[in-house]
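Sample pair:
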Amino acid sequence: MHETVCERLVPGLARGTAPLTLLVAPAGYGKTTLLTRTADVFPGKVLHWRPCRDTLGVPSLLASLGRQLELADTVSVESVLLAVERRADPVLLLVDGVHHVHGSPAEALLEELAVLAPRNLRLILAGRRMPALNLTRLELADTAVLRAAELRLGEGEIAAVFPDAPEVTRELAELTSGWPGVLSLSRPAVLAGRDPLESAGLRTYLDREVLEALPPRLVRLMERGPDDPGDHDAADAPELAEEYGLETDVPLLRAHLARRCVRPARHTGTVHRTDGAPSASLALRCFQRYEATLAGRPLDWSRTRPRVRALARLLSVHAGRPVHREELMAALWPQSPAHTAGRGLQVAVSALRTVLEPGTGRGRAQLLVRSGEAYMLVLDRGASCDVQAFEGAAGEGLRAAARGEADRAAGALGRALRLYTGELLPEDGPAEWVVPIREQYRNQAVRAAHALAEVELGRNRAADAVAAAAHALSLDPFQDAVWRLLIAAHRQAGDPVAARHAERRHAQMLDTLGVV
């Protein structure tokens, strides 16, 4: 990120008064640089947390805050807030990569810290996706959200970055929409009078760093464009793009997507056959039990080994998204040396391709493809995956609820809860790789049911609010706010007996937790 952008944004980030600020944009917009520069000039204590593969949960977040605040005893939300409040100086918590904990308990804890923040605590959360926070809460009403439009380089700033080539400033600005990372990678080709997309480095960057972080549905909408007559959901594209901080139209990205659509796809979530034959669509179910059908017929697993089936389930959860081979090896061969796990993965991938596409020659697979060092189950336009559909419906519903669009929120949240038919991949039991993902989706379902209950209560549909709150509590009975909502819904429905019964059960729950 150029110095002029930091000069423009850092003072406001460092001196802001709102408890929460969000930086939401794809890779290459300088979010990490902004956080670093803000930390350098902040006049107080700066706390950092960067969630990654091994540090995604609430214990990791609390332990990190406890170390930085030098707390000796067991760390809790209350002890962190008390330690901050006792400080004479302001405190700033910076979280880089918050998209890694989207919909998880750790994200809910960050929201709790922002809601309960003492006057001297502020949070800045940066990531590639809008956090699933309830920004309609009074405590978060002043939340500032900076997206790509605020983080991009203006034409004047581009001219300052490239003073030796003023003649291409406007062309670079129009081509990249001021996207700093893309701008830097495009510049050599533009200066040489060549098409920037001839650069394999730029194409790889767009595929791996940008498009792989987006949901396949959004990529498909971007590929087809809003005027595709066969797409009934294209109207949602701007809203979905906003969730991921994207500019609505970056010409270079649009051109890259158009080129991917006319050549054999190896890195995308969409199948494009080059032999004239229609692609067979996958239908994947991961909630309650695992099912996979191809062209309407269940896949035959009778001759496959357990690890091949486990590989299929793992890739199905991430369908349409590349999963790095090291992640696959760690999940399925956790105790094996790297060379043994690598050979096992190759064998399992080959066996899975035989199940999906028997008789397909080497290098011609269309459903299980390799993208660099990652593997991916491809979803074509006719494919389906309940996990992806659930994520899309839950995200749409929570966004609509935050905007006060009650009818749309109720429809989307209800659809999400119908898709969440049970826990994720029960066949894998307590396997280490599946437990955190399973918990993540269970928490998303709880949040969706909680939000639906609030929406229905606000629409004076007390019976529906009772049903939604009860659903949330069936998934997690230790939700104090949902118990209170259930009690209120019973009262609104004119059922004081049910309300008193819910109050007693709520009290029993609190007693179980040792809460007075």
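The CA atoms of residues 39 and 46 lie 6 Å apart.
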